[in-house]
Amino acid sequence: MIALAALFTVLAVWLWTGPDAATSRLARLTHQGDESRPRTMKALLARPSRSRRADAWRRASIELCHAMTAELSAGRTPGESLTRALTSVDFPDPDALRPVSAAARDGGDVSAALLRAAPGEGGEGLRRLAACWDVSITAGAGLSALVDRVAATMRSSQAHRQDVAAQLAGPRATAKMLAVLPALGLLMAAALGMRPLAFLLGSLPGLLCLTAGISLNVCGLWWTHRMATRATNL
């Protein structure tokens, strides 16, 4: 009985927290050092969350704007500047930017290529860069000044998101702790010989209480995570 309660405790903690940054780094090291493991398993272990992937796209977009501004200041053409800047930035999905590089190199529709390459989450920088490209072509505005302003705006937004995420670290930790408390209560009751699992799993009222408790716990975790995510993305 105690072993089952301990197992439920570990399972509750794992289901809520999931793989963290250390697990992802370990997966990347494993990907580099152990080529005998299946590629699909390594991809699943190293797959970042949606929020981390969006942050990676935003950081890469800021670096792209800085690199492009430097190239434009050096006297290169917009197409050449964008092509060189794309090669110097490590994007989460480099293959998605290949059409952009081809359009910039061959004189194609760069703005449309940027819009197609921009992901749904984290692609604000690429969409703003596409708008800057259109304004520069149609109105003849200086592209370097526009791109530099986009980079400054994105840096400010990124700093705001990081500040909000730091402030939400406490509520997130509290929510995780509250989610584990029922499992810890089962463990303590089992250690005192009260046999809580026999009641929860062996009778209809117990099953109803267990179902209601799990449902409320999951709803609370989902609601807390949703509120934190929306506050971070404001």
Protein traits:
234 residues; mainly alpha; 12 helices; elongated
Helices and strands in order, then pairings?
Layout: H1 2-17, H2 21-33, H3 39-46, H4 50-73, H5 78-88, H6 98-106, H7 110-117, H8 124-139, H9 143-167, H10 169-191, H11 196-202, H12 204-233
Helix pairs in contact: 1-10, 2-3, 4-5, 4-8, 4-9, 5-6, 6-7, 7-8, 8-9, 9-12, 10-12, 11-12
Question: In words, what does this structure look like?
Answer:
The chain has 234 residues and is mainly α. The protein has a domain at 51-155. It contains twelve helices and no strands. The chain has helices at residues 2-17, 21-33, 39-46, 50-73, 78-88, 98-106, 110-117, 124-139, 143-167, 169-191, 196-202, 204-233. Helix 5 packs antiparallel against helix 6. It is elongated and about 80 Å long. The two termini are 46 Å apart. 20% of the residues are buried. Mean pLDDT is 77; it is low at 1-6 and 17-48.
